Amino acid sequence: MGGGGGGHDPFDIFQSFFGGGGSSRGRRQRRGEDVIHPLKVYLEDLYNGTSKKLSLSRSIICSKCAGLGQKSVASLKCPGCQGSGMKVSIRHLGPSMIQQMQHPCNECKGTEETINDKDRCTQCKGEKVVQEKKVLEVIVEKGMQNGQRITFPGEADEAVATHHHRDIVFALQQKEHPKFKHKGDYLFFEHNLSLVEAPCGFHFVLTHLDGRHLLIKSQPGDMDDWQTHSPQILSILPFLGVA
Ligand SMILES: [Zn+2]
Ligand SMILES: [Zn+2]
């Protein structure tokens, strides 16, 4: 209010038209146990579509020991605590009085399992899982939006307890474009006019995100409505469905 002067930002107009609060950026969602990776993309990538090859490392259950961590299928149960992780010691306090005390097992440190060194799986060194390198090709489809997610079901780490592979999710993060802004189904292009261009008509060539050249022009007098503002124009182009 009442700031006056130039520097009127056409994107403010667009914000008030579309009710954008601009607060969606900081929102991060966590869903279950999925592994979410941000994936930086250019606006051109979203407009034209692209694909990116990413190499990731994930842990999978050791094939040699089937996730046991040892060669034999004998029980892993700690002999010290019978797999409870706790030991009970009994103290005699008197002829008819005993005290029972529970403490973490000193042999397995409370993990409930011990692996005999001789029996330890040589492939995973008793870790039960091994690291696997995997190359994923992420297809960014034409018209995808900033923040949109691309899911690879079952491509994340394999859980030892359940043998269940979690999903890998890529969340698209669009880098700022120097000329275009994108919101929903529209692209916005801001162009500063000279003081002469605004009243007298103008034309300029706009290079679109796919390399096309568009001629943007006006006739003298077209911009009369804009003369109360600083001479900027805002071109609104469809983001999807370009014929
Ligand atoms: Zn134990
Ligand atoms: Zn193993």
UniProtKB/TrEMBL annotation:
Domain of life: Eukaryota
Coiled-coil portions: none
One annotated GO biological process: protein refolding
Keyword Magnesium belongs to the record: no
Domain CR-type: 49-133
GO cellular component: cytoplasm; cytosol
Pfam families, per database record: DnaJ_C (PF01556), DnaJ_CXXCXGXG (PF00684)
Zn-finger segments (CR-type): 49-133
SUPFAM superfamilies recorded: DnaJ/Hsp40 cysteine-rich domain (SSF57938), HSP40/DnaJ peptide-binding domain (SSF49493)
Keywords: Metal-binding, Repeat, Zinc, Zinc-finger
GO molecular function per UniProt: Hsp70 protein binding; protein-folding chaperone binding; unfolded protein binding; zinc ion binding
Name of this protein: CR-type domain-containing protein
Species assigned in the record: Prunus persica
